[in-house]
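Sequence in, structure out.
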Amino acid sequence: MVKHAEGGFNKVFRLSMDNGAVLIARIPTPIVGPISRVLASEVATIDFVRNVLDIPVPKVIAWDGETANAAGCELILMEEARGKQLGVIWAEMELDEKFKIVEEVVAVQKKLQSVTFSRYGSLHYKSDHKSDAAGYSASIDIRGSLPLSAKTQPVLNRGTLFHWDLRAPNFFIEDGHITSLIDWQDAWIAPLFMQERRPQLLEDDGEMVLRLPDYFETMEDKAEKAKVQAQVEKSILSWYYHRVVRERFPALQDLFDLPLTRIRRETVLFASDIWEGETLPLRACLYQLQMQWDKLNTGIPCPIHFSSQEIEAHEQASTDWNEKAEFWASLSGFVSPDGYTSHGDYEDARKLFKELREKGLQIFSGKELADFVDQSKWMEQLR
């Protein structure tokens, strides 16, 4: 048994059997919620995705949502994902190979939207369903407060299965094809407008550049040259993704073309997944809705209003938040925002943060220094 990975939500182990078989054992942490229900939903979702939607997903071998077992914990045992992690080989792949992966990613998205559900929420086997009159009453109250979207745009509200994390590390590739898509723990049935999300490896928020500049061959700075080449390739892949979507899945392109479609999705996501002190992304969405309300053509006044003082305070908080986001982005793949780093990178990470603390103690003063000392005490405990 080898520890494969550990994050905020799961501990993952690779189990090698005497007969050569390999299994993946995953132990959820309490932060995922009611573990027995979470596991039951994940198992049902994987079964549905594998056998109804025909999306390649590792098979569940066994699972237990209780602790009264030989392992003494809730766990799920699955086949090992076949192939290599896309995030590992993506940079080495030729452009034509990446085009094929783009086409298969779109095919997966189309399959996910091919079945309409009559309800939102986690998918469960019928035998696991428990009637809850209180929950039903609450849902009636919520639906009653949202008549506008339900009546004016019913297509956008149809329930479809939503995999929220189509990132390269969750795809596995073999012989140029997708052989596994993992991480279904948080998959749920959501309104269609929630599907407005381009796969992360195909997002391109920068300038769309489809050709290398004329001066490319004469560039002497190798790092800058590689950066330019990477940006062009990213733009080409983003362009190709939308071309494939338009040709093979026009309903998704219609979704992308809706006014404020990303803000609609992110408003719901941030409102449903908010932590103390992390209201800024939600407030940013609400502020954007206020500023661009007319684009939605609702026919009713905007129900959101921020005062000039609130806007000023929000803009200052946004500046601080963006600086922190840029810092953690610079450490992407090395240390995650929740503090995770691999065993191999731990010593370098420890050294980095100790150096950062020493530098901060030298350059800050007054209240900034006091805040920094308080917020960086944990760095002193690194061993």
